[in-house]
Amino acid sequence: MRGEGYCYAHHPDLEDKRRAACRKGGKRGGRGRPNGGIRDVKSWLLKLASDVEEGRLEAKDGAVVSQILNVFLRGVEVERKTKEAEELEERLEALEGVLKNRGRKAG
Length: 107
What we know:
Elements: H1 15-26, H2 36-53, H3 59-106
Helix pairs in contact: 2-3
């Protein structure tokens, strides 16, 4: 924070704002991503297994549904990896920009 003696993480006037951000971050999945869809699939799979085991659903039908859910989970994983790669690329470009600017100032 320009013109201040403190950075965002230590500025005493921003303590409430930092706490609110921490609370919000703690309610979300890793790295700030919601994971509600994965929780839903996990509980669906547990119910599916129970239904097959107790005879409420035929095994072949349960197998098809679990295959569909597995495809969904793989899609979620691909999406996560893609987003993570994009974020890393942005961070790398920012770091390269900082290093380039440092080189100009030193020279």
